Amino acid sequence: MRRLLWPAVVLVLLLVLNVFFTPSFFSIEVKDGHLYGSLIDILRFGAPLILVSLGMTLVIATGGIDLSVGSVVAIAGALACLQISQDASVFTAVVLALALCLALGLWNGFLVAVVGIQPIIATLILMVAGRGLAQLITDGQIITVNSPAYKVIGGGYWLTVPFGILIVIGVLAISAFLTRRLALGMLIESVGSNAEASRLAGIRSRGILIMVYAFAALCAGVAGLMISSNVSSADGNNAGLWIELDAILAVVIGGTSLAGGRFSLSGTVLGALIIQTLTTTIYSIGVPPETTLLFKALVVTAVCLIQSPSFRAKVFGRRGRATPASPAPEEKVRVSA
Amino acid sequence: MTALTVGRASIPAKYLPVLVTACLLAAMFVVGGIRYEGFASGQVLLNVFIDNAFLLVVAIGMTFVILTGGIDLSVGSVVALSTMISASLMAGPGWPPYLVVPLVLLIGSGLGLVMGYIVHAFDIQPFIVTLAGMFLARGLCYTIATDSIPIEDATFTAFAQTRIDLFADLWISPSVLVAVLVVLVAVYVLHYTRFGRSVYATGGNEQSALLMGLPVGRTKITVYTISGFCSALGGVLLSFYMLSGYGLHAVGMELDAIAAVVIGGTLLTGGSGFVLGTVLGVLVLGLIQTIISFEGTLSSWWTKIFIGMLLFVFILLQRLFSARSRR
C-alpha cells in the first residue's frame, strides 16, 4: 500500500494546516443527536464527489473515461425535483430518477462497447446533450421542493451520522466486495489492459464495459439526488458542473492510471477527500474564492509530482529505489486490436 | 494497407475518415440549402470561417498534441487568459498592441512548454498535467479581474472591424487569413518536415520511435508548446471577435477543439490523422451552429440537445463508413 502513502500524507498535511487557522478543527461533538464538526462537514459535502469518483474509477480502470457524469448529476436532481413538485411520492421520484440515470449509463456503455466510439467522444455527446436535457426537464428554471422526506437523502441523519456518509459507505462496501472479493475487479482490470485479448480469453468485455458505464451513471445519479436534496432545489445549469474533472482528478490522485488496467477504490476515496478538504481549507483560511482554482492547480501538480517515480528520482536522487521498483504505466506494451 | 476500391480508383484507408467527413459535410450543406432559404450562399460558408477562426487555430494546435497520443485540456483557459492579459494591459497601463500581442503569445507558448516538460520529464499523464494547467490559467484570469474588461485600443478595434473584400460581395475578416496561414504552416510542418514525421512516429508507437533514435522527448515538449502558442493566438483572435477580456470566455472550448480533431478523423490514441481533417471538423461544428441559428426557434436547451444529437449522428455515420471499408 505504499502507493497510498503520498496521497495520505498530503491529506494529513492539509488537515493539520487547518488546525493553525481553526484550532477547533478536529473537535467532533454530538448536538441534538447529530454529529457536528469540520471533519464531518468535509465528509458530508464530499459525499457526492466520492460517489461520482467511485463510478469513475471503474470506468477509468477499463481504460475509458466518462465526461457525462456532471450532466447526469444535473438530470437526476432535475427529474427527482420535478416529480416531487408534481406531488409524486419521494420513493417514486428517486426510483424514476435513478432508472433514467441507469438508462443513460447503458447508452454510454452501448456507444463505447457496441458501436466502438472512443469513450471521451461517446460520453462528450451526453455531456453536451445531457445538460440540455436537464434544462428541458426543469424548463430552464430552478425547481424548489419542500419535502422533508427528500431532504433526508442529502441533509438527514441516521444513528447520529449524516445520511450521505452512510450512502457513501454503503456504495463503497458494495463495490469493494464486488471488485475485490469476487473476480469482477480482475475482469475489469483485464479489459482495461487489453479489451481484445480478454475477449479472446473468454471474458465478455462488452458486458463488463456496459456495466461500468451504467455503474458510473448510477453513482452520479445518487450524487445528483444528494446535491439537489441538500439544497432542496434542482438547477439544470449549474448542478454538477465540472464535477467530472474533479472526479477524474480524485481517481488519478488515488493512484489509478488513466491508461486503465488497475485501480484502487481506497485511493480514489483519499483523492476525493483531498479535493474536498482543499476546497474547505481555501474557504476557512480566508483566501479569496476567485483564486480557488489557482490553489487547486498547485496542489494537484504537487500531489502528482511527488507520486511520480521519475520526479522523485530526479529531485531526491533515489534512483536505485524509485525507478525499477514500481512499474510505470507507459511500460505497458501497447497491442493494437 | 487496405484500400477502398471505387471503380478503378483506389483510395488508401488512411484518407478514408477525412473523406467520409468531407462527404458528410457536403451533405449537411446540401440539406441545409434545401431546407432553409438563403443558406446555400458563399457568404454563409465564409461566416462559418469568420465565426470560428479562433477555434480553428486552437484545434490545429490540439491536432499536434493528439497526433502524439497526448491531450491538451488547458487550451480553453489559455484562450481566456490571453484575452484577459491583452485587455488588462491595454486598458490599465495602456500598452500598445505590438507589445501586448507578442507578450501574450510568449506566455501561451511558455505555459505549453512547462506542461510539455512536466509530461515528458516526470511521466505524468497529459490529461492531468493539462487539467492542472487549465485550473491554473482560469485561476490567473480571476486573479486579474472577475469582471469583463472591454478593449478600446484604436489599432485593435480597427483590425477587428476590417473587412477583406473578395469577389462578388463576399468578404472575410483578417482573423480568417491568420487561421488559413496557421493551417498552411501546420500542413507544411506535419507533412513535409522531419519534426512532423517524429510527431506521427511518437504517436504511432513511442517505444519504437525511441528505439529508432527519434527525439521523442523533444517532440512531445514541442507539440505542447505549439498548442500553447496556438491557444494564445486563438485568444488574440477571440479578443478581436469579442473586443473584451473575460475569465469566462471560451469555457468548454477544449472539448470543442477535441471534438473537431476527432470528427476530422484523427485517432485519440495518436499516430493517425490530418490537419485538413481538423479543418473539416471545425467546419462541421460551425455548420451545426449555423443550422441551429437558421432553425431560429430552438430554445437554449434544445440547442444543446440538438448539438449532441448531430454530433452523435455524425460520429456514428463516420464510424459506420470507415468500419465497413476496413473489412
TrEMBL record, chain A:
Coiled-coil region: none
Main localization category: membrane
Membrane topology: Multi-pass membrane protein
Pfam families tied to this protein: BPD_transp_2
UniProt xrefs under InterPro entries: ABC_transp_permease (IPR001851)
GO MF term (any one): transmembrane transporter activity
Top-rank taxon, per record: Bacteria
Location(s), subcellular: Cell membrane
GO cellular component: plasma membrane
Keywords noted in UniProt: Cell membrane, Membrane, Transmembrane, Transmembrane helix
Transmembrane segments: 42-60, 67-85, 91-113, 120-137, 157-178, 208-227, 239-260, 267-287, 293-311
Entry protein name: Ribose ABC transport system, permease protein RbsC (TC 3.A.1.2.1)
TrEMBL record, chain B:
GO CC entries: plasma membrane
Organism the protein comes from: Nonomuraea gerenzanensis
Topology in membrane: Multi-pass membrane protein
GO molecular function list: transmembrane transporter activity
InterPro entries in the cross-refs: ABC_transp_permease
Predominant cellular place of this UniProt entry's protein: membrane
Intracellular or extracellular location(s): Cell membrane
Residues that span the membrane, as ranges: 15-32, 44-67, 73-91, 98-118, 124-145, 166-190, 221-243, 255-288, 300-321
Top-level taxon of the source organism: Bacteria
UniProt-recorded name of the protein: Ribose ABC transport system, permease protein RbsC (TC 3.A.1.2.1)
Record keywords: Cell membrane, Membrane, Transmembrane, Transmembrane helix
NCBIfam families: PRK11618.1
